[in-house]
UniProtKB/TrEMBL annotation:
Record-linked NCBIfam families: FeS_long_SufT (TIGR03406)
Organism: Psychromonas ingrahamii (strain DSM 17664 / CCUG 51855 / 37)
Name of the molecule in the record: Aromatic ring hydroxylating enzyme
Coiled coil stretches, renumbered: none
Annotated MIP18 family-like domain residues: 82-155
Entries under InterPro entries matching the protein: Fe-S_Maturation_MIP18, FeS_assembly_SufT_put, FSCA_dom_sf, MIP18-like
Superkingdom assignment: Bacteria
Length: 179
């Protein structure tokens, strides 16, 4: 999917892999190289950029993910929905979600003293120097907080054990041409 388009209004973009925020200007010409998980990866004069779901209209595109939060009476966190949200988070350079890439090490839910639920996620990155870690962690927090009964999210990025290709699921390896 390579689509050339003109930016319709000024919008925030994150540089890949540096994680710095810049502003795309109305009228800038870009190429969409990836549209997954509620964000767009763009090529702008040879620089890869990430534009989030909240600015999709600046690209003339609909929001890729719409969420609404309604807590349930039992106040239980649905782990199936939680993992589905995690599977909607993508490394902006690799068209594989972070779960299939093997970046998620642990997901736990704790009930706090005040009755609210804390979800704690331990993950890694494909490279220790990846500046996109905070961007991915912020996306995880935002998406998980959109779920019913999730009141607080903490994401811990660790590098022990270090990530390796062996952690990638077979389905993802097949998609990447590694099998």
């Amino acid at each position: 999917m390579f689509e050339h388009l003109t930016v319709l209004r000024d919008c925030k973009a994150i540089t890949i892999p540096y994680g710095e925020t810049i502003t795309l200007k109305e009228g800038d010409e870009v190429v969409i190289t990836q549209a997954l998980g509620g964000s767009y990866t763009l090529n702008y004069h040879g620089q890869l950029l990430r534009v989030g779901n909240e600015d999709s209209d600046a690209l003339g595109k609909p929001a890729l993910i719409a969420t609404s939060k309604e807590n349930t009476a039992d106040h239980e966190v649905n782990f199936v929905q939680l993992y589905e949200q995690l599977k909607s988070c993508y490394d902006p350079e690799i068209p594989i979600n972070i779960v299939e890439l093997g970046l998620i090490y642990d997901v736990n839910c704790y009930q706090l003293i005040d009755g609210r639920n804390l979800v704690r996620i331990t993950m890694t990155l494909t490279a220790t120097g990846c500046a996109m870690g905070t961007v991915i962690a912020d996306e995880i927090k935002r998406k998980c907080l959109a779920l019913a009964n999730v009141d607080k999210v903490e994401v811990a990025i660790v590098f022990d054990p270090p990530w390796s290709y062996e952690m990638v699921s077979d389905a993802a390896k097949l998609q990447l041409g590694l099998l």
